[in-house]
Specification:
Length: 242
Amino acid sequence: MTVAGEYDPLAESLKRLGSPPQRTSLGQYVYDTLKHAVVSGDMVPGTRMVESRLAEALGISRTPLREAFHKLEREHLIRRLPAGGFFVVGLTRADVEETFGIRSILESYAARIAALKHRESDLVPLEKKIREYQEYLDNGQLDALPKINTEFHDLLYALSQSPRLVKMINELRDLIFRFRQVILKVEDTARLSNEDHLLMLEHMKKREAEKVEKLVREHILRGQEIVLKAFDDEFKMSDTGE
């Protein structure tokens, strides 16, 4: 297995962040920061994280780092190395196909329910997100789009008024965000995504549950095709633990 390198830049970055926010433990703070680095792609697959080096660089004990590593390991974001330490796990083709398959079912169903249950005023935040997304897109600020895209979908699915369904969708949030970064980094694809959002909104206004359900499913499966193409053409990601 090839290791991408020690992640000393992360230690330096963490060192500059200062103290955790009020009511946030050091362990939670380190976990949140490391997780963000993995999910955002700042820590690429194969990056090695050594507990002792990070602890020394941060001037903290190993305990909060150990807690953070164990949480990330349980979430399958990092994996333990036989010789000690951890590395960031890459995504396999099976991960991509499984995640998008589950999403296409859960999210399209949530959109269907939302089309039937929403109030007219509930659609205003969705319209604002579409405009915000378009402004950033027109200005060429593609890096901002995954976050806005996620917020749009969160607002849409919340209108289903089904906490259990929303919870199931959110359990895939971290993987979804990694995929959205791939999907939305190409301007044409990013523009098509917002066109879909506009159509979703129109179907919502007319309470066309079947149409919005179908559109969301197609929207997600198109994203799967893009990610799989990137997987095959660029990243050649594999299960780095085998």
